[in-house]
Amino acid sequence: QVQLVESGGGLVQAGGSLRLSCAASGSTLSINDMGWYRQAPGKQRELVAVITGGGSTHYGDSVKGRFTISRGNAKNTVFLQMNSLKPEDTAVYYCVHFGPFDYWGQGTQVTVSS
Which of 66, 51, 64 is nearest to 96 (CA)? Predict the structure, then answer.
């Protein structure tokens, strides 16, 4: 079992920044890939960013150049730095821990006002 605790969501004006954090505990290893997905009202869940245990990163097309995913020194924490936020970034953001079973966090709301 893996537990994920997300934090850092909130309300921000367009052009602003937010930093999301996700801490994993339980049966987690530093080699596990972790990432962020998001889901806006009425839309399908979409990939935001993934970081592998080795530090490689992958981003969804809509956030490339604006968002940065990274891992903390303890490796069981992942961050999502979101810059130049747009109203269309408004969504619930979910942290994901990939492995034999995928574990999802409870989600944190990000709202970008125009």
Answer: 51
CB 28 within 8 A of CB 2: yes
The strand pair at 108-113 and 10-13 is best described as parallel
C-alpha torsion sign, points 47, 69, 84, 105: positive
Copy the structure tokens of residue 113: 């006002």
The residue ranges of the chain whose pLDDT is under 70 are 28-30
Report pLDDT for 30: 62
46: left (phi over 0), alpha (psi -120 to 50) or beta: beta
Q: What is the DSSP string of 45-109?
A: -EEEEEE-TTS-EEE-TTTTTTEEEEE-TTSSEEEEEE-S--GGG-EEEEEEE-SSS-EE---EE
